[in-house]
């Protein structure tokens, strides 16, 4: 019996993060990546967002494997939630699985972990999966070439074509040429950095900027980067060695990740250069490098705690130098620049931004994307890993390269893309929702609760207490009005007293007329109308009515 190949994106199409893609042929499903997404400004109180795996759960007998392309949180961060419902083997490179093991330890989970390397081949049901080396901002990144019964599917993973990477392992161009000669039915191509013209600079170019900074700086240096950017961390450590600085680490995730990377040989930090964070104040300023996290302005990150004197052993002080060796994740710009302002207010020297030369992207710019596509020569091009504008811009590049318009397919999360007899068609969608993680709550917070949180944040709340005579319907005591985030009661006593009297008046008019009246609704409606008339504002009103 012949089947169509189904490819369904669960996350990462039309958004940055939450990456998950599934391939299904007959009774076999393989899953690529299981990432999380950081919340945007409208997701009040949310820690992060994870993919909706309800389709996988409803087909759990068909799900045979999860393959991870690399160890960033937007590709492995939802793994612990997926494993609660799916007991499947996981494949990943040694560093990726090292980071996964730490994550599973934290959540007291066990999994069937299988190490793979570039140039490995594994077979899972009708799928033969070949791994190939990619360069990215974390070592051990791979792309996937998947031979299916209908043709060869190439999944780029996150990549850039860095030919002078820090670890000396450039992309495997020979493999790309080989796949191109073999014939690629469809290429799923990273579009994250496609707005940028030209070529993404090599990670090695950061070295000269670091060297200039370390050479000219006599203050303490705080390097802020992602906890998984081991190439960046290695370059900073190399500069500390060259210029005689000791290295301390602030941030739990950074400590954990560096421990994993050191143990597996992906980073080299001599033991004699390391010091405990509590010993930093015992050294001259020019002898200190502190590696820390918090580049996205997270309120409880190590950098924020250092800035606000909330870190137990150490605080930032005037004259310190902070290197922000990242760029804001889309949606985090406001938080990041608010943090930069705060650092400048403290008298800290802040080195940041595109022109500072302290950060390069881990994703391919336009010319690299063109080269990647030209090497593979796909029949179909499917942009992924980007917001909608990124997908659209990658489609434009594909058109420039001569790929027919109807062979460049923009799909979003949930779209069912099917291949049969060398043709691609979209065939409906599966229903998907964002799954919000709020503390220990997973999926309990939905869009309605987020809308309520937003309204509370924007309009404030009034809590109104009223004691009513159950026989007469008259108010015996109150209304007592407590305002949170709406008005300051002590400065608005006259307005509050008028509001109280308005409620009393309504109850006097209704007294004895209808014993079945909804008294909570009456209080709420009366005050909503009053404050809308007086202030053109609509606070959330919570009526508390007692009857005796």
UniProtKB/TrEMBL annotation:
Cofactor dependence: Zn(2+); Ca(2+)
Superkingdom: Bacteria
Location of the Metallo-beta-lactamase domain: 17-210
UniProt binding sites for Ca(2+): 45, 47, 438
Record: residues binding Zn(2+): 70, 72, 74-75, 136, 158, 385
Cellular component terms per the entry's GO annotation: cytoplasm
Residue positions of the active site: 190 (proton donor), 363 (proton acceptor)
Keyword Flavoprotein attributed: no
Record keywords, A-Z: Calcium, Cytoplasm, Endonuclease, Exonuclease, Hydrolase, Metal-binding, Nuclease, RNA-binding, rRNA processing, Zinc
Subcellular location: Cytoplasm
Top-level EC class: hydrolase
Record-listed substrate binding positions: 227-229, 359-363
Keyword Nuclease appears in the UniProt entry: yes
Pfam families, sorted: Lactamase_B (PF00753), RMMBL (PF07521), RNase_J_b_CASP (PF22505), RNase_J_C (PF17770)
InterPro entries: Metallo-B-lactamas, RibonucZ/Hydroxyglut_hydro, RMMBL, RNase_J, RNase_J_2, RNase_J_b_CASP, RNase_J_bac, RNase_J_C
BP GO terms, sorted: rRNA processing
Any GO MF annotation of the entry: RNA endonuclease activity
Function recorded in the entry: An RNase that has 5'-3' exonuclease and possibly endonuclease activity. Involved in maturation of rRNA and in some organisms also mRNA maturation and/or decay.
Subunit composition and interactions: Homodimer, may be a subunit of the RNA degradosome.
UniProt cross-references to PANTHER family, sorted A to Z: RIBONUCLEASE J
Family per record: Belongs to the metallo-beta-lactamase superfamily. RNA-metabolizing metallo-beta-lactamase-like family. Bacterial RNase J subfamily.
Protein name: Ribonuclease J
Organism: Dictyoglomus thermophilum (strain ATCC 35947 / DSM 3960 / H-6-12)
Gene: rnj
């Amino acid at each position: 019996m012949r089947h169509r190949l189904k490819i369904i994106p669960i996350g990462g199409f039309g958004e940055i993060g939450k990456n998950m893609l599934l391939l299904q042929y007959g009774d076999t499903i393989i899953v690529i990546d299981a990432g999380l997404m950081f919340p945007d400004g409208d997701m009040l109180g949310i820690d992060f967002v994870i993919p909706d795996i309800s389709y996988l759960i409803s087909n759990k007998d068909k799900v045979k494997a999860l393959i991870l392309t690399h160890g960033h949180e937007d590709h492995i961060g939802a793994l612990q939630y997926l494993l609660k419902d799916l007991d499947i083997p996981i494949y990943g490179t040694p560093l990726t699985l090292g980071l996964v093991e730490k994550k599973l330890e934290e959540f007291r989970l066990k999994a069937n972990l299988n190490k793979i390397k570039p140039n490995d081949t594994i077979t899972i049901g009708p799928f033969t999966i070949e791994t190939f080396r990619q360069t990215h901002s974390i070592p051990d990144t791979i792309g996937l070439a998947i031979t299916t019964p209908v043709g060869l599917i190439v999944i780029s993973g996150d990549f850039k074509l860095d030919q002078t990477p820090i670890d000396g392992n450039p992309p495997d161009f020979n493999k790309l040429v080989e796949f191109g000669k073999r014939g690629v039915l469809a290429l799923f191509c990273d579009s994250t950095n496609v707005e940028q013209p030209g070529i993404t600079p090599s990670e090695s170019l950061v070295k000269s900027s670091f060297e200039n900074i370390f050479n000219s700086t006599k203050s303490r240096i705080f390097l802020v980067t992602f906890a998984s950017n081991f190439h960046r961390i290695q370059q900073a450590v190399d500069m500390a060695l060259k210029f005689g600085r000791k290295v301390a680490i602030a941030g739990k995730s950074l400590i954990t990740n560096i421990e994993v990377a050191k143990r597996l040989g992906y980073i080299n930090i001599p033991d004699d250069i390391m010091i405990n964070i509590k010993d930093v104040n015992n050294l001259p300023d020019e002898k200190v490098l502190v590696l820390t996290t918090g580049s996205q302005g997270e309120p409880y990150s190590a950098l924020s705690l250092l800035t606000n004197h909330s870190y137990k052993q150490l605080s930032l002080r005037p004259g310190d130098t902070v290197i922000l060796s990242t760029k804001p994740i889309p949606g985090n710009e406001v938080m990041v620049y608010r943090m930069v302002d705060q650092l400048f207010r403290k008298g800290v020297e802040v080195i940041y931004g595109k022109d500072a030369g302290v950060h390069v992207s881990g994703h391919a710019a336009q010319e690299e994307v063109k080269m990647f596509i030209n090497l593979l020569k796909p029949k179909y091009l499917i942009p992924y890993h980007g917001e909608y504008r990124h997908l659209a811009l990658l489609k434009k590049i594909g058109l420039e390269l001569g790929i027919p318009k109807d062979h460049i397919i923009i799909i979003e999360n949930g779209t069912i893309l099917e291949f049969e007899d060398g043709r691609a068609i979209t065939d409906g969608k599966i229903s998907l929702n964002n799954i919000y993680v709020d503390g220990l709550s997973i999926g309990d917070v939905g869009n309605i609760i987020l809308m309520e949180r937003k309204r509370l944040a924007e309009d404030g709340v009034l809590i109104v207490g009223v004691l009513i005579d159950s026989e007469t319907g008259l108010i015996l005591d109150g209304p007592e009005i407590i305002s949170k985030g709406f008005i300051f009661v002590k400065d608005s006593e006259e307005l509050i007293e008028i509001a109280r009297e308005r409620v009393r008046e309504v109850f006097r008019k209704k007294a004895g007329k209808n014993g079945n009246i909804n008294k909570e609704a009456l209080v709420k409606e009366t005050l909503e109308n009053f404050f809308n008339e007086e202030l053109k504002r609509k606070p959330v009103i919570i009526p508390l009515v007692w009857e005796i």
